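Why does residue order matter? Because the sequence determines the fold. Keep that principle in mind as you read this record.
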Amino acid sequence: MQSFSDTLGQVYRAMMANKLRTFLTMFGIAWGVGSLLVLVGLGEGFRSGQHRNLSTLGNDVVMMFNGTIPAVANQHTGMRPYQLTLRDEADIRALPQFRTVTAMLNRGDLYAVSAFSNASGQVMGVEPNYPIVRFVPMSEGRFIDANDALEQRRVVVLGFKTAQLLFPGRPILGETITINDISFRVIGKVGSISRGNNDSDNQKFYVPLSTMQELFAMKGQNIARDAVSSIQYQPALKGDTSESGPATRHVIARNHGFDASNKEAFEEFDTIQEEHMIGAIFNAMDIFLGGVGVVTLGLGAVGIINIMLVSVTERTHEIGILKAIGATRSAILAQFFWEGLFLTGISGLIGIALSGAFMWVLDHFFTGKVPGFDPPQLVPWSAALAIGSLTLCGIASGLYPASKAAALDPIEALRKE
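Structure:
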């Protein structure tokens, strides 16, 4: 009875007898496995990068902006502008379809001066709950609170880049700046918020909305005193705007005298819908890239089956001798089966190792350097798919040629040259 170690020894000698053929066969399988993992990893890198970009805007947030009402549906002539107001915000906040609602008023035509420098940027009048809806990582001090808003305090929180421009290398808390010649006390600093080359969020100034409306209300004719630039909210059901979206549009349309079914009258940016769309795109990409990888593995398996059948033909005389000296059908079957399984198994492990090393190199050199893209990631399900496919390939590439070899008649095999 032939031991398992003897079978492995015969497998090794057979593989080393044709080194170039063995190398090319293993290279094909390793390439297929590596391609599968890297392709799926690239898709996941893009998904992760886009998700990270959206997370710098806020978590589960929908932004409503001032819009224009078409005089006639689908026509862009005679459009009437309207501005969102604090009344709209109060009416929306009173509804049960919302988790958090906040309003903001921003202007980009204001000028800030400190004792050391000057700067311009978006001055944002915001409410205390603004950081709940939007991403505002505080690095120093505090954000605007309820007392600041209630008492219309002249306090300001500086963006990351704005703080560097106005107070280069100096402490900022408690210092004073002027915005259009009106003094504000600095109470905090926001950490860096950037999306690739877009660092406009780092150049913002945050003041209480009540103070902003008192000092820097929105300019223009027929604009309400409580007009705001945007109302932003989070739906009561996380990740679901099916109820909150229509409720918002109904309130705004009612308050401003137009039909809520007129979608062209609304200006909004829905990060939830954006996230769902990106997820659907990358799910389809994962399926496509995974399919390409599996097909590549399948081609590699066909190559191994072909090589093993050639090996059976070349070694027909050897098989005849083995059978003549007492080798059983199961021993012959095991030898060729394990040879095919080892070819695929070792090749697959090499492919997984090399793809993992390649993705590690990309992660090391490219993390945070390409906007909207994270380096490829080794995805567990793709590794499981690769291992499962390899197992099937190994069985297929070993079993059929092995059965052909085991079925050979020893006398006919010995007559072969």
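The chain has a mean pLDDT of 81.
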